[in-house]
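Subgroup meeting minutes
Present: P.N., E.W., G.H.
Scribe: E.W.

1. P.N. recapped why we're keeping a running log of single-chain structure predictions: easier to compare across weeks, and new members can see raw inputs and outputs side by side.
2. G.H. added today's entry (424 aa).
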Amino acid sequence: MTDDVLAAIRSVSDRARNEITSSPSETPIEVDSREALLLAALAARVDPGGVDLSEAKLRTVRRALLKLIRPATESQSAFNADVHRAMTEVMDAIRADRSRLNAIGAGLSSVELFDDVADSRISQLEELAGQNPTRTEFEALNGMVHHLGQRIDDLVDRVSRLDARLERSQAELARHRAVVDLTMRELRASAPDEMPDVGAVTRPLNESYDRFYEDFEAALRGSREQLLAQQRDYIELVSDAPGPVLDIGPGRGEWLELLGEVGIEARGVDINSKFVEGCRSRGLDVVHGDAFDLLREIPECSLGAITAFQVVEHLPFESLVDLLGLCLVALRPGGVLILETPNPSNLKVGAMTFWNDPSHVHPLPPHLLEFLVTWRGFVDVTTRFPGSDPARALEISGVESEELDDLNWALFGPLDYAIVARRA
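Output recorded in log:
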């Protein structure tokens, strides 16, 4: 994070603090010209027409004005307090991370200094070795080699620890950046007297179509047995997750059933009331609501894994970026993120079957989603392609094998792919 961004955040926090701590008489209230004229007249105890006002009438008018503006000022104060509290917490966390990074930098500087010393010692050893040393000199030389070996081992161990600290600090900075981005986005989208509700505009399908989508998935998503077989391969990815699993958009609940079979604590959140009812009827823990709202409400660093099967293609790009930020904040270190989506590198998917679902926004090429997840701050990002059909491969004489492989991939490649990542 640059100094310019930090300065901007401090400026916002300082303005919020000044607005919160100032007394009502010091807080300016913007009014139009007519209201300004009225207030000026009241202060002079003369109305705009030049008629004197009695003290009783003046008190009545003042009370009426105060009653009118009180809801706005109270809402503004509460809003300012929320902004100030959020930005103060973020600034404190960023200062702590910068201190850790400075300490790591000092450690790396000492490593570089020792590296120069080691080069000098090695040069001395090479020079002595070429001079046919005596037994005493040889023993001294051997002692220097042993000492240098120990120092090198210590250096390797120290560098390893510094690398681990650096990775953790970078992960924390990425998480705090996500908090800042999400906070700023909500503040820009909200008026002082309204609560932010970014998730309200990201719902992929209106709830009035819940029945349609339930029937649609039954017809085109595949049978429950097929999905259970396909998703079983993901179990190993979350078996050692450092906490409970949250499944976004569980649909009919096949993935939650698999997690329950192996004893992994899991819950789901879905905006489709029909899916929620069906999952609950089978004893699955699924709440009816918006995943964005739920992720904002749960404590930071409280989840071991977040999964979303056939969800991200329903989101506008800006909402997808927000979702990744919320996931980064909610996951514990070492937590796993799994995003499965249709594979548009299969021509049939990209050109036709993707568009069967009217709530899909646009296809997400594997390289794009992998880059976006990495850019948002996740590590160990990989792409998995389950379910290809090699039995349908073409064989054309005279066509190079590499070209034929590309053609077979485009025609018969996997219908879906999954991005698997981890929070450092």
